[in-house]
Specification:
Length: 284
């Protein structure tokens, strides 16, 4: 019986082969684009040949100096860090209230928080930019941080609310029975349990902020551009007359930055372990 089972030919459904073919084609195209951009960033001249005439790192040095990428990267990291910190400080307490309290209009509030996450950023970005320029905040770091908080705070709230709901409320009741105040319950009892969820939400907000183009572009300017906006301005400056290799070098720097963040997220935040830890906490 075992021999006949092993000898049986392996056949897959046509739909399975179609899915694998589509995934393979997508992977090949994506890998081809990435390789082309990376090779172009190191190339001296590349027109009608399979490979550039020579390889050099001068394009990275030139792009770093011409577009002040040191300052741009610093602005990007600073804006992302501020948005993450403020989003967590505002979003986690708000998520706790939504998870533990029932009040009239709760569903409407949840829907209100859901809108900036679901709607295209440009739909509310233009009115936001108008308000920022009306108050004299246009082209400033303050405006960049504020507009990025609009989708980030609701994102943290929507991420943390179900996480908090899965934590057994009996833990908080036991702490209060032992004499702990509300602040002590939140900082000493709940905070350690919320660390995995906070870390996951913070990393996702970080990646989202670094890659958010529309809102940042509408209110940023010299000295407040993030890396993704600087790439767009480099592409369109001088009527698109900048050397293609410079833009490719900037794109590689941006892609490497996002890749590092993704690796960190997958290294320290495992969704399976996150859910398992919450369930264990609720069972206890």
């Amino acid at each position: 019986m075992a021999v006949s089972t092993l000898a049986r030919p392996i056949a897959a459904r046509p739909s399975t082969w179609f899915v694998w073919a589509g995934m393979t084609a997508f992977a090949v195209f994506l890998l081809g684009i990435i390789i082309a951009v990376v090779v172009d960033s190191f190339g001296r001249q590349w027109f009608d040949t399979w490979l550039p005439e020579g390889l050099t790192t001068d394009r990275y040095v030139e792009a770093w100096d011409r577009f002040s990428l040191g300052e741009v990267v610093g602005v990007t990291v600073g804006v992302a860090a501020l948005v993450v910190v403020i989003s967590v400080l505002v979003g986690v307490p708000a998520a706790y209230v939504l998870a533990r309290r029932d009040f009239p209009g709760k569903r409407a509030v949840m829907l209100l928080f859901l809108l900036p996450v679901l709607m295209p950023p440009i739909t509310y970005g233009i009115p936001l930019a108008t308000v920022m320029y009306s108050f004299g905040l246009g082209r400033t770091l303050t405006a960049v941080v504020l507009v990025n908080l609009v989708p980030s705070v609701p994102f943290v709230i929507l991420t943390m609310t179900p996480f908090i709901e899965q934590i057994n409320p009996a833990i908080e009741s036991a702490a209060r029975m032992c004499g702990a105040r509300t602040r002590q319950v939140f900082t000493r009892v709940l905070a350690p349990l919320l660390v995995p969820g906070i870390l996951a939400a913070a990393i996702l907000v970080l990646v989202r902020t670094v890659g958010l183009f529309e809102l940042t572009f509408l209110v940023s300017g010299p000295g407040s551009d993030t890396l993704v906006v600087a790439i767009y301005r480099g592409m369109t400056s001088a009527g698109g007359g900048e050397a293609r290799q410079l833009i490719s070098a900037m794109s590689v720097i941006y892609t490497a930055t996002m890749l590092v963040m993704l690796v960190v997220a997958l290294r320290f935040v495992n969704p399976t372990q996150l859910v398992a830890q919450v369930k264990e906490t609720r069972d206890d």
